[in-house]
């Protein structure tokens, strides 16, 4: 964690880095509602999927995805920002092609560098314009996104649906690769454009104990 | 009837030629020909990326160790002549396409077996810089009818594509229409005028983005007819592709050819849909209606499905039911079952065996064709 940089003041859609698959965290926000006004409500991600659509310089796109998403977020009484975080194991990102996976994980995300690089983390999540407990349906979120050892503010649309005790969240946000200090993805004349789009789908349920951070 | 069957099989006797485009790569999330080919309509010379992909994703001989940085230009198993020339050619990319082929044809009745060992040999070269591409192919064209064998250039063109996706090219090429299957005898290619030697001289304008590709072409028509001084109709094509995602594509196509002293004005319109439900399966379906001025009744229809399945790395199996009806007679025409096995033994070496069963609708006449090819792309 020797080189965490926080980029603020940029338009969210132009700020975040790369393969932000991580972002799922956004979603979390939503969960708070079921336990509206309860003290320190906690939500744990029980399943989910992150998809990153990468437009190619020659046209078309490819998709990297993973279901290795986890995390717990909490919301204190009267708080509007979620504590905790949601993270994605970047070593599990799969583009369907071996060499492309290797390039993504090793050359660009540099997951082998360890903490700060091996997981994408979304934290400090805000949902909606005010009290997140009442958010239902379409809304927006913002959060702090850590990728490639660099932090950035991200935001985008989010949809929250309550299904019994669980909450289903879908959210997406753009990530600008170069803003996260990631080398321009390029291989033998074929590259990925600077802005990729992250889509997160997850299901969370109430949790009694916040998940320990790693 | 037998003569007709032979005529239908003739294109195969000429060899499958060209390194075909591979729509099956939709399963690998490649929904643009230009990911691997210089030509926006696929086929022909592979780009360095396409060569690399052949090594990394097609060859049964998996690299012992994949490397993050690409090998130096001109080096590596995937390079021209397996890297024998190194970077001698500088910025020019070249390739040689050889296809010794064997064909067996059974037209029924007293079995007529035609066996040929033919060699397709093409040399291809391209230079690309600052968005511009200069491209050319020279190859051996087998004797066809009264035309003797000789040197032939399938494609030669100059093109440009901006970083924003706007592009053009002018010269000789196969215009964009539908799905360019590697089998040029497919009923959605040959009957519509997109066979191996059906290139046109034209100007093509294109615009590509993350989810779309538009290609429009206009020109004086058949390149062969122009070269030989024969009547050549003004020809225009349009193709619009919309990608619902990296593994799903919808394509609309249109074609118009003006009348000549020999052929009335004609055209075609079609729609194609491709989907890759898994990383090993690609499914393409195309339907076209072909029209000709002066003919009443139903148009001639071409319907095709091609399903490709990667059994394991290096082995692809394909099955393709195809239907072609006659003008004004939707109950007539020909139905085909095509089966294909393609074994990529190692980079740029593959053995392809195809079996075709064609049945003339409304009769009991059938004929079978077996085509075996050793494909060397050096």
Describe what you observe in this structure.
Chain A has 214 residues and is mainly beta. Chain A has one domain: Beta Barrel (Lipocalin), CATH 2.40.128. Chain A has 3 helices and 12 strands; from the N terminus they run E-H-H-E-E-E-E-H-E-E-E-E-E-E-E. Chain A has helices at residues 12-15, 25-28, 98-108; strands at residues 5-7, 41-55, 61-66, 69-75, 83-89, 119-127, 137-147, 150-163, 166-176, 186-187, 190-191, 195-206. In chain A, the strands form 2 sheets. Chain A has an 8-stranded antiparallel beta barrel with strand order 2-4-5-6-7-8-9-12. A two-stranded antiparallel ribbon of chain A has the order 10-11. With 378 residues, chain B is mainly beta. Chain B has a 16-stranded antiparallel beta barrel with strand order 1-2-3-5-6-7-8-9-10-11-12-13-14-15-16-17. In chain B, a hairpin with a 2-residue loop joins strand 14 (315-326) and strand 15. Chain B has one domain (2-377): Beta Barrel (Porin), CATH 2.40.160. Chain B is built from 3 helices and 17 strands. Mean pLDDT of chain B is 87; it is low at 8-19. Chain A binds chain B through residues 53, 55-63, 95-99, 102-103, 106-107, 187-190, 193, and chain B through 27-32, 34-35, 47-49, 52, 56-57, 66, 68-70, 128, 163, 165, 208-211, 213, 243, 245-247, 279.
